[in-house]
Amino acid sequence: MALLITDECINCDVCEPACPNEAISLGVEHYEIDPDRCTECVGHHDEPQCVQLCPVACIPHDPRRIESPAQLRLKFEALVRAKASA
């Protein structure tokens, strides 16, 4: 599953630089995760870095984006290919 940042976010600025896929950006009211770029750190780390670092635990799985580990790996590989060809 992709992750999402809830409105409990305090905009502490910890998650954005920790995201290896550049999936996190500042939204209108709080940070947001682009579900098309979120691989839950598959391909980079054993655990999602944003979840580990978040001081208020406001980053759950997005129930609208159910993805298996294999799907997350494929997304990671596609992102790597796109970055290499850019």
Give the number of domains: 1
Radius of gyration: 12 Å
| Major sheet: arrangement of strands | 1-2
Topology as H/E string?
Answer: HEEHH
Helix content: 25-40%
CATH first level: Alpha Beta
Give a structural overview:
This protein is mainly alpha-helical and 86 residues long. The chain has one domain (15-85): Alpha-Beta Plaits, CATH 3.30.70. The chain contains 3 helices and 2 strands. The protein has helices at 15-18, 49-53, 69-85, and strands at residues 24-26, 31-33. The protein has a two-stranded antiparallel sheet. The longest helix has 17 residues, at 69-85. It is globular, with a radius of gyration of 12 Å. The termini are far apart. The mean pLDDT is 96.
Structure keywords:
single chain; 86 residues; mainly alpha; Alpha-Beta Plaits; two-stranded antiparallel sheet; 3 helices; 30% helix
Topology:
Blueprint: H1 15-18, E1 24-26, E2 31-33, H2 49-53, H3 69-85
Antiparallel strand pairs: 1-2
Give the structure's gist in a few sentences.
30% of the residues lie in helices and 7% in strands.
